[in-house]
Design a protein that fits this description.
The protein has about 240 residues and is an alpha+beta fold. It has helices at about 15-30, 35-40, 95-110, 125, 130-135, 145-160, 180-185, 195-205, 225-235; strands spanning about 5-10, 30, 45-50, 55-65, 75-85, 115-120, 165, 170, 180, 210-220, 240. Helix 3 crosses helix 9 (about 225-235).
Length: about 240
Amino acid sequence: MSLTAEIVARSLLPAQTAEEMLALHQRHFDGVERTRFFADLAEKDWVILLLTDGGRLAGFSTQKLLPPIEELGGARFLFSGDTIVERAHANTPLLPGCFGHLMLRLIEQHGEGALYWFLISKGFRTYRFLPVFFERFWPSPDHATPPEVQRLIDAVAWRKFGPGYDAASGLVRVAGADRLAPALAEIPPGRLDDRHVAFFLSRNPGYARGDELACLAPIRRDNLNSYGQRVIRSSHPVWVC
């Protein structure tokens, strides 16, 4: 079954689609509260939608461009919120391709000197998006996080989550946060052989209870690896803005 994609301004998102997003999220996460879900959605700027041929929602990701942080030289951060793709379409490159299109548009609008992706990850699948897409990202099993990058992570995480962010561990812990459903939280056999999965688990041992690892990647054309560039070229989202 093929999929199509839309990048929709959150203000133009149909109410029925928002309800379908909630239902899809509840099928894959435990502890999803309706009020919290819609409050979080209301803060976002865009929603990436994956749709089947029949128009049924198969996945989504919410995105927010945070206000610039002046004490960091006006650095800006694209923050990814709730993200889920049905397991039947888990390997589609369409969602990362659409995310890449959003990043390129932000580069055109804001430049790439001080633009970053701020990701919080409560599952190894989300964390693995970083090495699949980017040349440089932090934290990483391959290189230590430079002090200046750690200052960026700490500043944006504190700005977004306040005391819910623990700088010592690099984890976000928010009371009442939803959690991966047991089937998704389980680590499949052989995945621990992947150094990125093993690293994620070492840095976020409480992922199954909803802890999220704060991560950062520069949004720059030269930071997109060959796979990232390829999936961007192969995806053709419809913009609804």
